[in-house]
Structure formats: structure tokens, C-alpha cells
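Aim 2 progress. For Transporter substrate-binding domain-containing protein, the working sequence is reproduced below.
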Amino acid sequence: MRKLMLALAATVAFAGSAFAEPVRISVGSYNLNNLPFPVAQGLGLYEQEGLEVTVENFASGGSKTLQALVAGSTDVAVGFYDHTIQMQSQNKAVVGFVQLARNSGLVLAGGKNATFDPAKPETIKGAKIGITSPGSSSDFFVRYYLQRHNLSADDVSLIGVGSGSAAVAALEQGKIDLLVNYDPAATFIEAKGVGKILVDARSDKGAKEIYGGTYPTSVLYATQDYIDENPETIQKVTNATVKALQWMNNHSAEEIVEKLPKEFISGDRETYIKAVENAKAIFSTDGRFNDEDVKTPLAVLKSFNEKVAAADIDLSKTYTNDFVGKAPHDVAN
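Predicted C-alpha cells for this construct:
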């Protein structure tokens, strides 16, 4: 009898996995702006929606994820909202459907020998500046800063160094003078005595000083074609991710780290928990896009991206709240 029960259990488990809906999700990097995605994984929320998620992590930055999405080698991307604006300027329809991070979370940090003084913007000339990758939002951050102070990218050297511990190591080893990056790198820099934060856009106040407004960053996005062809899949992904956002809003940084897949955690655990605590304020609580906030990335891109500046961008086509509006919004425990 026991053998029969085990066989039945195995059959049910196999049937469940056989009927799980496959979806490929790629993530630009394991910086903390993207944290709600691995939290949803760790809580098993995608499985609860009947999804079998295959994950690919492009540690070099979000621009690689965007390329994978446009090429059709992934279904959904965890990347930055401003990429949807870029794609529209190239006549490609990429649409954000869940907002994860409502603010930038970026910092500009200097190494021990850095000579840049934010009070004197011209002192950034000649600096080797680490960014996650060319075409990423950290790249945009630097270019917008330079443009606002009548400088150009030719005045500095922009070097892709990835994110997390690899980015911190590049600063520590003197391969770069300055680093533009997210948490956990931002917290690691000061905790390890590698350098200090010179410009901080993690808070709303800091974001307004840098960008002139709140700057939404990490989102889930897909091509309009995929959304039109797979609305039920998009709804399931949305349901799971919104539950993760609600759960994060009601739990401590330590509890959040407890649920993360091990590969997501970098550095020592206590410092990582501190980084999550520092980053908590940037996360959305409901996944909705704000009609006013999305204007900030457009203004930033227009300042230095000729294609975006020349295009008649319709922001309403770069995001949708339709799926978030249908997601259950009960508080997750």
C-alpha cells in the first residue's frame, strides 16, 4: 500500500510539473533594485501561479538583458524602465508591466585617491568612472550629470565593471577612480572602507537633486507582441511579483535576506542585510507606474540621446498598469 501511495504521489508531482507553464525571465544584474524578483523566487510565488521559470542572469548589466528580449531569447526581462523609452525611439515596442523600484538607488562613490569634488563639477575631468555596462542606467547617470554641468563623456573614461562585489573590487584596486553603482555595492564601499559616497540618489531628495524628480528604475518588461500573445502568462508573473512587493513592505531586511536564493547574496551576510535596509525605501509597494514619475527618465534621455530627443515619444505606450490593476492586493504574510 505504501508503495502505491508513493507511486501516486510521484505521478501527481510529475503531472504538476508537466502542466507548469514555462516562461523565460532574464535579469540584468543582482543589484538590489531588482530584489523583488529573487524574493518572489525565494517565496515560491511563481510556482504558486503555475509557472516554471527559467532564469538567466546577465551580471554585466541591463543592456544585455534588453538585447536578449529584443532577439527573442527571453520572454520577460527584469531591467530598467528607461530602456522602454529607448526602444520606442528605435520603433520597437517594449512595455513595462510591473514597477519594482520607484527610485534610482544609484550612488557615485570615490576611491581613496579620488580628486573629484561634487562642489566643483569640473574636477571630474580625466576620471576613470566605473559603470555597470555601456548603455545602462548607471551610464545614463554619468552622462546626465556631465551634460548638466556643461561637460561631456569625452571629458572622462567610462569603464564597464558590472555590479556588486566585482564593482567594489575595481574601485578598491584602483582600476577606476569613481564608481556609479547600486546597493549592495554602495553599502559595501563604506562598510569596507574602500571609499566614500559623494553623490547619493537613493533618497527622493537625492534623486531630485540629480535628476530633477523621482526616477523609476527596475521593472518587469516584455515586448508588446509577447504581451498580446501571452496575456495570461503576463498576469501570472504580475500576480506573483506584486505579492512579493507586498511581502517585502511588511517584513524586515533580515527576513527578506532569509528568503533569497543563495546566489543572490554577495559579501558578508550582515553587511548585505544592512544594504537591503538602506535600499528598502526605493521599492514600490504595489507595482504601479506613476504617470508623472515616468517623465523624469524621458527628460534625462532626451538630454544626451539623439534618437530619443528626435523621436515623438508616447510614454503611455512604454508601460501599462492593466495587469497590476487585476492582481490580488491582499497583504502577504
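Residues 183 and 279 are 7 Å apart (CA to CA). This observation will guide construct design in the next reporting period.
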